[in-house]
Write a structure and sequence with these properties.
Length: 272
């Protein structure tokens, strides 16, 4: 396989037509047989992969190049998700605007070519796949919850937790799923998994979802200031499934797909 074929395979798995701005091939490669894959793969991992005969380093998080610089652009894809939940697109756009600006300003000053230049000097193919892998995770977890909670109009947050804890990555994780807003006996209502928007949308995004009828949001992580704001809103629940464990679900699915094509895959860099 080559890097383009790997991208096409992952996009098909995620149901996406195009590669999002937070993902890309930094150093292309052909005849790939051995892949080093991880959540965060930077220069140290590149050196290790080179020494162990890797043909490709695959990172989940954008560490370098255009995917790092233009990461903020994928946040606006949350508008489509919000619209699907019944939130007017104009409100969705306004709720996200502050977060988009915050992320853009933070990435603007980054040393965006550091890892990419290391990959070029090492002549080692390097790529990252962020939102596509998160979409795979989001779809997987949502399907598990929908199936398990179907017909249970009064399912509780503990019922949601029980389903999550059956997923191997969450079961094996040190940082396990936890209820951050709400209690074990609180009714979950409509449960929505939000893991593929680039980053957390912020308290106004959460509020918009709750006011549109979502009872419980399952996400990867929740900044403290957002948690406090959601507590003050007092209209919905939040379960944090865990960042590394959630990322690992999608990455493991991708790695298994690559193995199905006959590639050797070394999982590291935070994959559980």
């Amino acid at each position: 396989m080559n890097t383009e074929q790997i991208v096409d395979m992952v996009l098909r798995k995620a149901g996406l037509a195009d590669l999002p701005a937070d993902s890309g091939i930094l150093v292309p490669g052909e005849d790939i047989r051995k892949v080093f894959a991880g959540i965060d793969m930077a220069t140290p991992e590149l050196l290790l992969a080179r020494d162990m005969g890797a043909d490709l380093v695959l990172s989940h998080h954008p560490q370098t190049g255009a995917p790092e610089v233009f990461f903020h652009q994928v946040i606006e894809r949350q508008i489509d998700k919000m619209a699907e939940a019944g939130i007017p697109v104009n409100r969705a756009q306004k709720a996200l605007r502050q977060q988009v600006g915050k992320v853009e300003r933070a990435s603007h000053s980054e040393n965006y070519d550091r890892v990419a230049s290391a990959a070029r000097v090492l002549n080692l193919p390097y790529m990252n796949l962020h939102v596509p892998v998160d979409v795979i995770t989001e779809n997987f977890v949502q399907s598990k919850l929908d199936l398990a909670l179907a017909g249970k109009s009064r399912a509780t947050l503990q019922d949601v937790m029980n389903v999550l804890q059956e997923i191997p990555e969450y079961k094996r994780a040190l940082a396990k799923p936890v209820i951050r807003v709400g209690g074990e006996k609180d009714y979950a209502g409509r449960v929505l998994v939000l893991m593929a928007g680039g980053t957390n949308g912020g308290d106004q995004v959460f509020k918009a979802y709750f006011e549109a009828g979502v009872g419980t949001i399952v996400c990867m992580h929740l900044p403290e200031e957002v948690r406090k704001a959601v507590l003050e809103q007092n209209i919905g629940n939040v379960i944090v499934a865990g960042h590394m464990a959630s990322d690992s679900i999608g990455m493991n699915i991708v790695c298994s797909e690559l193995e199905g094509f006959g590639l050797e895959v070394v999982r590291m860099g935070g994959i559980i």
